[in-house]
Target: Extracellular solute-binding protein family 1
Amino acid sequence: MKHNASRTMVALVTAAGIAMAGAACSSSSSSGKSGKTGSTNAADGVADGKPLDPNATVTITIDGAPGADQAANKASYADDLQAFKIMYPNVTVNAKPYVGQVEDPAQFTASLKAKNETEAFHAYFTDKNQVLDSGDTTDISAYVNDQTVPGWSQLLPGVKQNLQDSGKTYSLPINYYTEGLIYNRDLFTKAGLDPNKPPTTWDEVEADAAKISALGGGVTGYEDYSGGNTGGWHFAGELDSLGGQMVNSDGTKAAFNSDQGKQVLQRLHDMRFKDNGIGPTPVTQWADAFPPLATSKVGMFLGAPDVIQHLVEVLGANPKLYGMGPIPGASGPATGTLAGGDLYYFKKGLTPNQIKAEIAWISFEYLTPGKGQFDFARSKALAAPDKPVAIGIPQKFFWAPSSAQMTQVQTDLKTSATLPIDQYADFVNNPIAPVLEPPAAQQLYKVLDTAMSAAMTNANADPAKLLSTAETQVNQILANQ
Model:
């Protein structure tokens, strides 16, 4: 998913019916006690690594509860609050609703500076540095384990790395996605390819794209972006898949003018001008990629799982057409893939029992198979009969494929999914290490748009020169950060 579009990921997933619901409640302020070292007041609890006492009396605040524009999800969230109340009768959850976008970047930054966040507050993976730099978040390492967060030890390493810093844990995840290869199974079959074996290397993608394009009738084997910041965004994803980097380790210099960067552009150039695997008109805007995918005019495309959701729910495509595999790499599945997600941080100054109560609620609503956002049966029951709903996109899969949590998720989906989940097995069973977006991502992507466009539209394009020019421009951008 495109970076600025990922800012609405929570809202998009609710559209799929995966029950991230909301209740409009008022916000309250923290008591001011420190959850990091514990409290001398017995009623405040202790940081002992145990779950919250079911009899504890605690009031907590949290944002990210869907508001008036998400009626069905709001009702589901309210139901979940009632179920949670049965487990913890003396816990009051004051949930602050949102309308539209769950997080406005400017408002989020202002809230951190003013230190007026809710006690548990929503953020994106890419917000980690500014949250930690604010000094207004709590180390919850002493509170998280398999007792307090069932499945904690089974979280994917790529998920955990976004929750932690210098060995300390500061947040819990509520959404996680990586990119993969989305492909049209029907076109694979027509081209003589095995629809159950998507390509796992870029050499295979190039060869398969040529065969699909050879079908004619306006069909393109592979589709890629070249403008609107999407070209640079896809360049970054393809670079990551080969083990390359957009910037150096401290984010001060461009690093994409490398062998891997040249491979990305040279391959796209060859696919366009030698193999005919890419059509003559690359896509310049995010949304423009989807109509050809929905009408079986494109064989393969890189994207997050919500692309399938968009094709089914917005464009009315047949979900049986699409499979998903891991993003290809040089000699097998990629070494890295662009990733993103949402999480909750814990405001500084909470009592141990407040931290425990926040963890209990977040675990119940967002991290428990069969409950909250993983209550697929409820999502299916609430779906409008006259509107397609995509239940079962391979997203928010926080845990190792062999874990008890993923086993239950997959079992539940077998009876409640509206999508052919077996067609995403290659993607689900081969999780790729996540790579977060670079600093000044949108500015860097805009620069790389030019290189991507030239590679796919100019028969005489020179990848080395294109990247050298882009490198100079990006270094100027990074120097001003």
